[in-house]
Amino acid sequence: MASNVNPTVRRRRLGQELRRLRELKGMTAEEVAERLLVSQSKISRLENGRRSISQRDVRDLCGVYEVEDQRIVDSLMQMAKDSRQQGWWHAFGDIPYSVYIGLETDAESLRTYEPQIITGLLQTRPYAEALIQGALPETSVADIEKRVQVRIRRQERISADNNPLRLWVVLDEACLRRTVGNKQVMREQLEHVAEMSQLPHITVQVLPFDVGAHPGINGQYSILEFADASDSSVVYIEGVTSDLYLEKAQDVQKYTVMYEHLRAQALNVEQSRQCIEDVAKEYAR
């Protein structure tokens, strides 16, 4: 469930405001970096919210941008302070995709395409355990349990009584056919997906094999949207050693159009639920 202060979102909003002030001043990131004797990459990371922003950073940038209204400076300084607080996920230690968790925690809706596995928000504990163990064979039992706990905690966003996350999932048929764990794990997992798909805020569609080539052929991605108009939508692409976050309007639009094509080519909601239930029965044999 979203906390009152989400450090990831605070960094994004603060970064957007600092970018706006820079552009109003007519300065490039390179010019600002030269004035502050820092690298251009630091300015870019501050503006895209991928780096913690100190109050000193805010003070120095406001000085360069000649912000005269002290109320604006104070507000930005407070945002910088809030952005350095820890979200609930920090209690679990070093989580490689913590930036994504912060965005997901504050998102209003999430659209995701999964070509290989059941999406994390719909995974059962046995499925998640088997999946992580298989994907990361050198991971310790303790680290597997930590990752599973984080995954289960994330699922509070779709089970919340108040303002649950609106979730739309397109699953490739391979997600249903790939046996993770064993047949019992898969049967229970697919039954869970079918049950969750009946909730009004969760939509699940299956993209069958016979569709052939399709716009999502290059792999998994998610589109996060936020209630606050000042928060731009984000396309998230998970990587092995690093993740990709796309926020430019033209990038988000391209992935959005791709997603609409996937939804159109997939089975409809009722057909998808029936397909999932049929495959679950196959695992029961």
TrEMBL record:
SMART domains according to UniProt: HTH_XRE
HTH cro/C1-type domain segment(s): 18-72
SUPFAM superfamilies named among the record's database cross-references: lambda repressor-like DNA-binding domains
Protein's recorded name: Helix-turn-helix transcriptional regulator
Phylogenetic classification of the source organism: Bacteria, Bacillati, Actinomycetota, Actinomycetes, Kitasatosporales
